[in-house]
Design brief:
By secondary structure, the chain is mostly helical. It contains six helices and no strands.
Length: about 160
């Protein structure tokens, strides 16, 4: 117990040293100020991705099932059911669209086999990446600028 207490005291001393670093303190304050905006942005991104997931379940799932029955994705356990439900479609779109991790394994074969499916993949990519995520960046920058202006006003009043 004494050793644990000593570790906690050392951590508190380290945190106190970090508090002296002006830039780090400011960065943490700005991150805390943008927390609300980021939370709403993440919710908005989830809603847009869920809308595309609903479309994916209706449009892509039958195409993926047909391709899986023909022998595609024998080495992939999750590909057959990637768009079988809204939650699985959400995960698949997150992996494919937002992280750009799954294009070669899932999206490209489906688009090559069924070119009309490019509407769903490219539509979700364009709306989520170029639409929503750019709005998130703009919102964060705007929030930072607003808080900085408020800080400058309060410093000028002092």
């Amino acid at each position: 117990k004494l050793l644990r207490l000593m570790r906690v005291v050392r951590m508190l001393r380290l945190i106190r040293k970090f508090a002296r670093v002006r830039e780090l303190k400011r960065l943490l304050q700005m991150a805390a100020n943008c927390g609300k905006a980021l939370s709403w942005s993440l919710l908005f991104c989830f809603i847009i991705t869920t809308i595309w997931s609903l479309v994916s379940v209706e449009v892509l799932h039958p195409l993926v099932q047909e391709m899986a029955d023909q022998g595609f994705w024998q080495d992939c356990d999750t590909c057959r059911d990637a768009f079988s439900s809204v939650m699985r479609a959400n995960l698949s779109l997150f992996e494919t669209v937002i992280t750009n991790d799954n294009w070669g394994r899932m999206a490209v074969p489906v688009i090559i086999r069924h070119p009309e499916s490019a509407i769903v993949f490219m539509g979700s990519y364009l709306t989520v990446v170029y639409g929503v995520l750019n709005l998130v960046v703009a919102l964060v920058v705007d929030t930072f600028a607003e808080h900085r202006m408020n800080d400058e006003k309060s410093l000028a009043e002092d």
